[in-house]
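Check out one such.
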Amino acid sequence: MAGTIWSILPPLVAIVLCFITKNVLLSLFLGIFTGGLLLNSFNPLSAVGYSLEKIVGSVADEWNAKLLLFNLIMGAGIAFIWKLGGSKALADWAKTKIKTRRSATVWAWLLGVIVFFNDYINAAIVGNVTRDIFEEHKISKEKLSYILDSTSAPVATFFISDWIAYQLGMIQKGMESANITGVSPLSAFLGSIPFNLYCLFTVLFVGIIAVTSWDFGPMLKAEIRAQKEGKTKRDGAVPMLDVDFELGKPIETRPMIITFVLPIVALIGVTIWGFYYTGAKAGGETLIEKLGNADAATALLWGAFAMMLTGIAIAIGFRLMSISETMKTVLDGFKLMLLACAILVLAWSIGSVTKDVDLAGYVVSLVKEDSSFFLIPPIIFIIGALVSFATGTSWGTMAILTPIAIPIAYKVTGDAWLSVTSMAGVVFAGSIFGDHCSPISDTTVLSSIFSGSDHMDHVNTQIPYALLTAFVALLMYFVYGAFRISPLILIAFGLVLVILLARVLNRYSIKRIGA
């Protein structure tokens, strides 16, 4: 049943059950089990064995294992920041500098744009820096998780990061598939940025929402709850990271801002150095080449370890904790991340299942090479979104679609530059859109973790915002396919449309809710 319509079933079961039951762990496992049934002639015992092997394989994968350890050690680093009073000191500082809800959300948005070199570390840093500030100003966990998710991958896809190095490789593969020569992958990447409309609109839309507070849909309800009832998370929510509950009261004898700043600086500094060191060690002359060869998982692991060690050094050096209390804090920090790690493992596992059932191959087979170019950009965008949503991976979707989309466009148009730049941008946009909406995406999970949000609450409140910017991007792709208008004009027109739609939906939601 691999490569047929049946291959849709495993991710469909997982995603639908996530929304119905709100139980992510059970839903993901049942999705994996469904794949096991399809691949083992509906033998339940064989399906269970297959499911367990997929989970073991996800844990045993070197990249995944490093990211799991990164999360656990990051939890220890967060625990020290909390227990040593760093979060309290930051909150006290924020009272004097960040005095309004608007300034808090704008600060989070700007920080999300500044921390551009990796999407995972973006969510970790911005979440840790702003989580207590948002709590102080009674801004919902859902709003913070949205800001984290919508400034991490979209920003990383534009600036110097491990994402760009990966995307250059995908563009090169696409040009090789189409037998296109004479176009530099780097110049093609730069040319693709104006076509990455979903990411452009999303990053700008976060800023618009931060400045105007034109929330709508479930997010507006969450914000009203936070403002009127003082509840930054809904009753019954299961936060992915609940520092207050897990760690108890912080040490208040000497709350120092340094106990927050130094661990974060260690995290950032060592991670950046790790990117450069592992990339240079693997070979490469230019910065882009070194980023392309960098071991991102190792760099993140080193950064988290440096963060934890800094916390330990402060605790013992300032005699704020005994050695036994220090070790207990490390273990308590690990416990913070257990639910998140379990969800990540199952998300990776169902991604592996979708590969086994060849879901991507089936979806891609629906595209015909003799299509009119008018339809090619929107079709590729939609397929990228569907594959990414179902598999939970934007990088995997890019790897699948880029070598297919570029040759299709080149065959129809005969224009090498247009085919490479437009298709690369469209594929990147669709891949990240689907990833944003998917409850089984690791970046979606990480945004829930570092905001302290209930995972499905994050997904439910983010989807309407993602759909708005994706809808506008899709319209612009239709316009481009029909008239080949400059993408810069499409960006300007699309941004105006995004603003108008946001205002209309905000007013409609306020009227409907009666706020």
